[in-house]
Amino acid sequence: MKAEPLLPQNGSGRALAHIPHRSDGCPPHTPRGERRSGPHGRLGALPPAPRRPFPVRVPAHAAAVTALAALFALLTWQVAVDGPLLRADTALRDAAARAAPGGGAVSGAAQVCADLGGALVALPVLAFGACLLGVRRRTPVPAVLAALSALAVPALVLPLKEVCARVGPDGAPLGEYAGYYPSGHTATAALAYGTLALLYVRRGPRAAPSSPAPRSRSGYAVAAAVVVNLCVGAGLVLRGYHWATDVVASWALAGLVLYALAALGDRLGARREQAGERAGER
User: Fold this and answer.
1) What are phi and psi of 43, to 5 degrees?
2) Of 14, 32, 220, 252, which has fewest CB within 10 angstroms of its CB?
3) Which among 267, 68, 259 is positioned nearest to 149, based on CA atoms?
4) What sign does the dihedral 40-45-46-51 (CA atoms) show?
5) Angle 244-192-71 (CA atoms, 0-180°, nearest 5)?
6) How far does CA 268 lie from the centroid of its chain?
7) Residue range 122-154, pLDDT digits in tens
């Protein structure tokens, strides 16, 4: 008795064209047989239709760097052309003079806060913290990053001061002084205390996954750096040492430098890890 040929069976949820047409079980050689299904088992196209494009996602770090650069460029442009944004500086200067009259308690507290941004205070704190972390982690990376952070102020801020040549809130002639924009005290404080917080929260080379500082301690370190820098900026404005835009521009510039230092620190740490692994294999 002659066997009847097997007919393709229509499976549940599948098209007839997706069932093999050969009796030996091998896949068919026709283009239709090799056709891939679309979503949910539906018939696809030849070749498969492209999926719906995903929305473009910008990394958070790239967005932050772009925002800081745009803010610094905007403020620098306004200072260079004496733009309308500087009217807020005058209003804040007058308000600060009324809020912190000379000889009062507010003025004294503002002076203490402003002094925290001086090189004689901020840089020794950075040097001590970087050396301590370097000894504990047995790596020179903290010292290298601290040195670069300290050198960034004279390398970046001083040339900008000379180019902008902005007078201070008191309106006195500059004389031999380079200028007030951007604020050197603010940049020194932001880089010193910001770098120290960055060194504390980042993981040391060849460290175990549990070695980074706990989130609570890392949060405290970052919060302390932010609070100190806010106090420094407020003190400089209340005492009439700088315009508010001088302070904000230095914060933006310091943020860009800190991002660069973080990237450099990660690269140096990765190289030390690779060097340690090679030495261990030998």
Assistant:
1) -65, 135
2) 32
3) 259
4) negative
5) 40
6) 18
7) 999 999 999 999 999 888 899 999 999 999 999
Sign of CA dihedral 259, 261, 267, 272: negative
As given in the structure block, the two tokens for residue 134 are 């370097």
Q: Which helix (H) or strand (E) holds 200?
A: helix 184-201
Q: Could you give the C-alpha distances from 30 to 5, 13, 27, 178, 274, in angstroms and in order?
A: 20, 22, 9, 79, 52
Closest C-alpha to 256, from 116, 174, 121, 155: 155
Q: What is the pLDDT of residue 65?
A: 94
Beta bridge partners of 43: 37
Residue 37 dihedral angles phi and psi, to the nearest 5° = -85, 155
Nearest to 221 by CA among 199, 191, 197: 197
Per-residue model confidence (pLDDT) at position 235: 95
Residue ranges for the chain with pLDDT beneath 70: 1-58, 203-215, 270-282
Task: Tell me what pLDDT residue 238 has.
Answer: 94
- By the 10 Å C-beta count (0-12 exposed, 13-18 middle, 19+ buried), 273 is classed as middle
| DSSP H or E stretch at residue 77 | helix 60-81
- Output the pLDDT for position 228: 97
What secondary structure does DSSP assign to 147-199, as a single string? HHHHHHIIIIIHHHHHHH----TT----TT---SSS-HHHHHHHHHHHHHHHH
- CB-facing half-sphere around the CA of 70: CA atoms within 13 A: 6
